[in-house]
Amino acid sequence: MTLEQIKDTSEGPKGSGLSRKVLGGLLVGAFGLGSAMVGGSAAYAAPATELMPGHKIVSWGSAGDGQRELPDDLKVKATKILTGGYRHGAALTVDGDVLVWGDNRHGVKKLPEDLANGKKAVGLVSGHSHLLAKAEDGRVYSWGADDYKQQTNFPNALKGDTGAKARIISTGEEYSMVVTEDNQFS
Known about the structure:
It is a single chain. With 186 residues, the chain is mostly beta strands. The chain has a single domain (49-180), classed as Methylamine Dehydrogenase, Chain H (7 Propeller), CATH 2.130.10.30. The protein is 4% helix and 35% strand. It has two helices and twelve strands. The protein has helices spanning 73-76, 113-116, and strands at 7-11, 19-23, 26-31, 35-39, 79-84, 88-93, 98-102, 121-126, 130-135, 140-144, 166-171, 176-180. The two termini are 13 Å apart. The model is unreliable at 1-48 (pLDDT under 50).
């Protein structure tokens, strides 16, 4: 099945502006540029919205590991994507910077070297204790937990500057998925 075979199946709750899509029996809700959430039940996604500086981002629930202590950069930078995992939060700014906060026991706050050194991202998703980012050039970066081989089994076809380029990135609780520019799943 190719990405072109994704089709709208319904609208979200009335007046919400949300929608869901189906890809081979899996529901896909697109979030921002090149990232997606895939699951076996209804996945509703809001249209991509940029939160400009000064917008209030509200966080609630468990706070024992700093996951609700938003970084100061979120107060002054426009934000494109917000995502979170088990005990961490992450954001992608409109400038392409990745910010991660909260618990670091799985290394989620240690960005891959290219991203830490200024390479810009256009997509960001979070699993339970790992993250994926899609760079402007389509390269995929993965970091964080490896207890279910999220890093060890990173596909060779996606590695390095010559690797396949991503169109869509996605994470589940302890796994990752990518649709490449040639519409192949990895």
